[in-house]
Prior knowledge:
Cobalamin biosynthesis protein CobD; transmembrane helix; single chain; globular; ABC-type vitamin B12 transporter activity; 71% helix
Amino acid sequence: MELPLATAAIVTALVADHLLGEPRRHPLALFGRAVQAVEARWYAPTIRRGAVLAGLLVVPPALAAGWLAALPGAGWFLEVALLWLAVGGRSLTDHAGAVAAPLARGDLAGARSAVAMLVSRDPAALEADGIAAATTESVLENGNDAVIAALFWYLVAGAAGLVAFRLINTLDAMWGYRTERYDRFGRVAARADDLLGWLPARLTAAAYAVAGNTSRAIRCWRTQGRRWKSPNAGPVMAAGAGALGIRLGGPAPYHGRTEVRPALGEGRAATADDIHRAGKLLGRAVIGLVGVALVVELLLRGWA
């Protein structure tokens, strides 16, 4: 039986991502430069200005992607290409592996250098367990943002939804800071990212629970997720930590200051091996969700 087109596009894109990784010149980097140019030219410390600029940066590309994807014949291949560009699973696991390898052999200097590519906390202040925890947190959280949430919005709203989500997610990474410059200007981008990420984050948390220790993951999700400063990262990382049976969260050094963060998960401290375990947990979660998507698409199309 022929696979439904949406699921076939996802599977094809995931295989391409696994085999090829990201292109050297990623379109999101070009978008990032456009964001910087727009900000430099039209910045104003107001919510309205940030909202207008965010709309101008996101809506036209999303509409164009939706229009092009509807073209007969070539549209499906464009969707596969957009999915491949949007899903960053291979890049995430490669960066995490670059931390795990030196950490496993006791090379703290090498691990600190590699973890600086993944997280914003001060690597010089991190010991082995802190490096392992930071990297595992990154795999779990970005597994949602860079993989599962992107697939979710493609399934819900096609190429337009996929592009809109990834561009808003990128805008949030650039403008979503609670600083004097961005508190008002970046507020709409940050709130839009929270809104679009709310349901996918809960889907990711549920998938992590099913793919790991289910009861412990659900318990950590319910009791710890809401304490995190991010409404979406909290459930994802709490469920992931519980599924793996490790402790994450807690105090973290950020360039001269220590940020007090809630504890996540249960069990022992994270190690280098848990970085790989987090990647495998993400892989099982993605496979499970793709299977669910296939069943749903078959049912909707009346093939079951």
